[in-house]
């Protein structure tokens, strides 16, 4: 059985890496329905929930993470992930609550704080979101997701010079990252938009 488990895991992971998410889900589900090892089941629930999230099946993702929470209510990561599932659902109030629970269990985890910052961004609380993103980056300067989020916020709020500075920081770390290429284009679009609006005055 263990050899078959290993084979399925390798095949499923390969499918996931190649973007064949539904085929990966089918294999992981097959394994999930057969194994009895609780540690493996716990991991499979996380893995399947992640895949369901990407195919926007939030009901199944939520069900699996809730089962993990029932299995171990002290694992902060489950609450963190539930926060993003709630964002996917559009329920920012619940998302905020889940991120807060994750932070209460693991106060030093800067990634959980980033989740909370993202909720504030989506709610339109840009000043609060910016402060939180900067706090994340003070704690964890290598958090590229937080830096990308901050750049997106700065562009959206018209703080273009600050955005340019943050883009340069990002480029120094990873000049070929697709995210930063996208943000550079966003910045240029915003600059053109401002020029057009000025020309109409």
From TrEMBL:
Family annotation (PROSITE patterns): TPR
Keywords: Repeat, TPR repeat
Superkingdom of the source species: Bacteria
SUPFAM superfamilies reported in the protein's UniProt record: TPR-like
S-adenosyl-L-methionine among keywords: no
TPR repeat start and end residues: 76-109, 110-143
Protein name: Tetratricopeptide repeat protein
Naturally occurring in which organism (per UniProt): Dictyoglomus thermophilum
Lineage: Bacteria, Pseudomonadati, Dictyoglomota, Dictyoglomia, Dictyoglomales
């Amino acid at each position: 059985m263990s050899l078959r488990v290993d084979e399925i895991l390798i095949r499923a992971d390969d499918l996931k890496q190649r973007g064949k998410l539904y085929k990966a889900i089918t294999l992981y589900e097959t394994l999930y329905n057969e194994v009895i090892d609780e540690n493996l089941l716990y991991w499979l629930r996380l893995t399947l929930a992640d895949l369901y999230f990407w195919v926007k099946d939030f009901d199944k993702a939520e069900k699996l993470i809730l089962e993990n929470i029932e299995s171990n209510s002290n694992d902060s990561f489950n609450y963190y992930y539930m926060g993003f599932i709630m964002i996917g659902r559009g329920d920012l109030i619940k998302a905020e609550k889940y991120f807060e629970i994750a932070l209460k269990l693991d106060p030093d985890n800067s990634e959980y704080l980033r989740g909370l910052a993202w909720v504030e961004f989506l709610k339109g609380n840009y000043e609060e979101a910016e402060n939180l993103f900067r706090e994340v980056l003070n704690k964890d300067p290598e958090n590229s997701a937080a830096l990308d989020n901050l750049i997106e916020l700065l562009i959206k709020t018209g703080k273009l010079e600050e955005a340019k500075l943050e883009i340069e920081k990002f480029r120094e770390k990873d000049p070929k990252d697709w995210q930063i290429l996208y943000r550079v284009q966003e910045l240029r679009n915003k600059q053109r938009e401002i020029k057009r609006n000025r020309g109409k005055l």
